[in-house]
Design goal:
By secondary structure, this protein is α+β, with helices and mostly antiparallel strands. The chain folds into three domains: 109 residues, Uridine Diphospho-n-acetylenolpyruvylglucosamine Reductase, domain 2 (2-Layer Sandwich); 126 residues, Uridine Diphospho-n-acetylenolpyruvylglucosamine Reductase, domain 3, CATH 3.30.465; 79 residues, Uridine Diphospho-n-acetylenolpyruvylglucosamine Reductase, domain 1. The chain is 29% helix and 22% strand. It is built from nine helices and 16 strands. A five-stranded antiparallel sheet has the order 6-7-11-9-10, sandwiched between helices. It has a four-stranded mixed sheet with strand order 1-2-5-3. A hairpin with a 7-residue loop joins β14 and β15. It is globular. The protein starts with a helix and ends with a strand.
Length: 340
Amino acid sequence: MDIQKAYSQLITQFPNLEIYQNHPLAPYTTVKIGGPADIFIHTKKSEDFKQILKHLAEATIFEEHKPLRPSGEGASTSKNSLRGEIPITILGNGSNVLISDAGIRGIVIKNSSNEIEILANNQVKVASGVQLPQLINFSLDHNLVDLEEFAYIPSSIGGAIFGNIHGFDRHDLNQFLDSIEVFDLTTNQLINYLTTQLNWSYDYSSLQDQRNLVVVSATLNLKPGDTKTAKQKYQDIIQKKSPNQPMKSLGCVFKNPAESVCLPIWGEKKGAGWIIDNELNLKGSFVGDAQISPLHANFIVNNGHSTASDYLNLINLVQSQLHTKHNFQFELEIKLLGQF
């Protein structure tokens, strides 16, 4: 892949944007781990984000007639790429992705678009780069409730949609979505999908796999309500979660195993954290500076100078001991980006 040619074209086309070569990615993740991107682009407005996507879809420096397969936020780096050999990765909050020590090949776009707009009929339109806590507070300040149950989740809106996050009351985010504006890199078009048109599964990746789509914005259906009570609930959730969910982590590392897996072993459904703590006795364990959190065993924290290799070796330790003792392994909640 001709990274230098791609970089030269980008800085010529977009002289006012932050575009760098061999740029470290660790500062853009919640766990502060990860090597560099070949090309790093930081967009802070939706219009800039869309223009970059449009440019990459139209780029003439790549071979023709090869399918465009960018990765969505939180997804692994695309297997196929821009009309040639340059993959694209979209990075939002960096809160559920472990980036390899070697970094990410190709183009990484850090999307920090931050527009929020109140629409008619208690709807809110929000750019995909907006941080979830910002949206929640904005909505409450405008007397709109329902999002408070998503307190203490470190995510951009794009990442929250991609993972279809669930809140404290077990509602999924898609239950509040009216529509999603996406950029289709195959056709170079903006498309507005009503959520009734989407076949939602656990996460948004099923749609991402089928189409070359990048989330640009979303419109949510909220409702007016008692914001004083909602704000108190928001604070109560933070107070309840914060003692055992370290924010300087990637969130839960493993998905909780299915009930069908748990019942033959324990007679009831068990969470991944409980299993790591009580069955494997690995809570607090270290590999290098990566540690299974003493607060919650389904979180791995960086105690200062952890590498991605340390982090992954700790994951592998859990998986190995779990397989030895109970003959199954956890499915990862986090996504691995780059070469491991």
